[in-house]
What we know:
The structure is a homodimer. Chain A contains 4 helices and 6 strands; from the N terminus they run H-H-H-H-E-E-E-E-E-E. By secondary structure, chain A is α+β, with helices and mostly antiparallel strands. Chain A has a 3-stranded mixed β-sheet, with no helix packed on it. In chain A, strands 1-2 form a two-stranded antiparallel ribbon. In chain A, a hairpin with a 2-residue loop joins strand 1 (68-73) and strand 2 (76-80). Chain A binds a DNA duplex through helix 4.
Amino acid sequence: MRNLISLLREVGLQPTPQRLAVAQYVLATTSHPTADEVFEKARKKCPTLSRATVYNTLARLSEKGLVRPQTIMEGVVVFDAYMEKHHHFIDEDTGTIHDVPWGDLVVSGAENLREYEIREYQVVMRGRRRSG
Amino acid sequence: MRNLISLLREVGLQPTPQRLAVAQYVLATTSHPTADEVFEKARKKCPTLSRATVYNTLARLSEKGLVRPQTIMEGVVVFDAYMEKHHHFIDEDTGTIHDVPWGDLVVSGAENLREYEIREYQVVMRGRRRSG
DNA sequence: GTTCGTGCAAACGGTTTGCAACAAT
DNA sequence: ATTGTTGCAAACCGTTTGCACGAAC
Lengths: 132, 132
């Protein structure tokens, strides 16, 4: 899409077909994909895409603030394009990660932790998604 | 120590020299060591110790509820023997993880997240430790 | 023509597994 | 005898790196 091309140009990245395929997928999904999931999905749009380019592109998107790597799952980094502050709920049955809007939870008491200069924080919840 | 031997027996683990060395270190430290750090330290007490046994022992200590693996750092699992509920602060300068007592923070609003059955949660904070 | 981006394959680091030897029950 | 535990080495998996080719400026 024209928008994506402009977006990449704005942040100083050449809009190659590979980067477009990666960005198109990772910026649109809310599924918190791993690098390998991005690779599988984006390769459908751009079959020549290699793993190295996926890792490379995700690193640059992250540097440019378009995506945030999250280390909340065992063994893998997942990528989150929802850039506003928010919390996470991890469904232990399925491994699915859900975004929880910032305003849904209030954390109080951090002001009293004087030994720490808190740059960011989030609540990480684990459990089951309700069936109903 | 006699206590450690009884403890391992109580949870149904044979108190071998290797397990004693691993348990003695990981249950006493508050430094959130990685498996490899446990290996290095415990090997001083028990030079025949292998990496496989460290991973094996940590997995069992975890099953038995004596230790909790935490996935809050990039690329590694760290082990926490502080089993009461608590939060974590990660010093981004040093990579050090600090335990934050449960009562120091209050999280409210979780009751309203009706789609989720929350089994556990913690606040994960990142920043710098204050110099003063 | 110099820089940037790519694919490939090899390397890497943390973790798991298969297996044969051995100790405990 | 059966089961549990160990060390070793190989396998594994996610990620990074080196490099030579090609495209963009």
